[in-house]
Amino acid sequence: MRNGVMRPGHVQIRVLDMEEALEHYRDLMGLIEVERDNQGRVYLKAWTEVDKFSVVLREADKPGMDHMAFKVLNNEVLEQLEAELVAYGCEVEQIPEGELSGCGRRVRFVAPTGHNFDLFAEKEQTGKWGISSVNPEAWPRGLKGMKASRFDHCLLYGPNIEETYVLFRDVLGFELAEQVVDPEGGRVAVFLTVGMKAHDVAFIDCPEPNKFHHASFFLETWEAVLRAADLISMTNTSIDIGPTRHGLTHGQTIYFFDPSGNRNEVFCGGDYHYPDHEPITWKAEDLGKAIFYHDRVLNERFLSVLT
Amino acid sequence: MPDSLIHQIKVVNRQLSFSCSEDQALLMGMERCNAGAINVGCRGGGCGVCKIRILSGEYEVKRMSQVHCSADQLQQGFALACRVFPRSDLEIESDHCDAVLIPGDKPAEQNE
């Protein structure tokens, strides 16, 4: 049952070279550069988002994900969730207001998969970029590249998928929209949502903890996904696979890599979820079709190339 | 402007060679020749799949993930092929990846 977690808030990603990363996230994907803080981190947002930022890039000597954050309804809910996490047995860490510019205090816990997750209740809202909230035009002029419309979800790899699912379900109120189940009945992938989207975060079983598979951004149309593919070729950007369709969630997609090897996705479409929907199940034996609906064969990179 | 210098890259464990210009990383040079001598991952220095050992020759490297290639390993001639730029003909050994993780499997053993 929903428990006050509202939606994804942001993801902080480590990159090897900030300027190369900005050419990718800003100029190719079309995110808007918002701010650079005194640690050198760069904040970006997609144009339809009301929050000040949804992506934070930090230069480091190993790529990957620092943390993913979810916004909760208000400060009372944040306190309540914090107490529930502690009661459940999670260690929580306090991240003070302003550690990320414009973001309120965050409560951090480590999922059994090894990933850092933050909850927060307050973040500065600057409104959709380039259009008014009164009589808004259809879209702003001056967007770059793929014109990514919002940060949508992350797919993360790590151990203890079942424990992580139970924690997200019982404490945070996520629902299981889709799953991949092995012949013995064990879950090897879970797609979790707190809204109507097919996933806000997803996990796939992997022996090594805290691995980052991709951060995904939403586009409006299949035409826009094809145009993204053109831009990937025009810029000689490292491609993974696509354009194609997923069996899981049925989204239409293309995967590619940032200049530090972190995988990104842009996609459109996809299924919807209501709280009374039973989870959709894909069989692990049919993982090829579940992941890449047209080829029906998994490329090895999808399972093994992680940061 | 002269064309960028081109060097021969010999992959000793695969008995394959390919040519690679100085302005191109070894992995992309290999892909361009369709040589199939080094496994391809993210092409960005992040995943470790294209880890090689350079046995002889001169080269420069760009920053790469310390998870997959530490400063010590760099000194010993290990590197991720997507971050290595040739400055002479090279002899290399591919398949030094220690990062391939298939769900359900145990982590691959270290090669070194």
UniProtKB/TrEMBL annotation, chain A:
InterPro entries: Catechol_2-3_dOase, Glyas_Bleomycin-R_OHBP_Dase, Glyas_Fos-R_dOase_dom, GlyoxalaseI/FosfomycinResist, VOC_core, Xdiol_ring_cleave_dOase_1/2, XylE-like_N. Its cofactor is Fe(2+). PROSITE patterns: EXTRADIOL_DIOXYGENAS (PS00082), VOC (PS51819). Homotetramer. Residues 7-122, 150-269 form the VOC domain. This is Metapyrocatechase. Keywords: Aromatic hydrocarbons catabolism, Dioxygenase, Iron, Metal-binding, Oxidoreductase, Repeat. It catalyses: catechol + O2 = (2Z,4E)-2-hydroxy-6-oxohexa-2,4-dienoate + H(+). Its EC number is 1.13.11.2. It holds the Pfam family Glyoxalase. Belongs to the extradiol ring-cleavage dioxygenase family. PANTHER family: GLYOXALASE FAMILY PROTEIN. Coiled coil: none annotated. GO terms for molecular function: catechol 2,3-dioxygenase activity; ferrous iron binding.
UniProtKB/TrEMBL annotation, chain B:
Residues 7-98 form the 2Fe-2S ferredoxin-type domain. One of its GO terms (molecular function) is 2 iron, 2 sulfur cluster binding. It holds the Pfam family Fer2. Transmembrane segments: none annotated. SUPFAM superfamilies: 2Fe-2S ferredoxin-like. InterPro entries: 2Fe-2S_ferredoxin-like_sf, 2Fe-2S_ferredoxin-type, 2Fe2S_fd_BS, Beta-grasp_dom_sf. Signal peptide: none annotated. This is Ferredoxin. It comes from Amphritea opalescens.
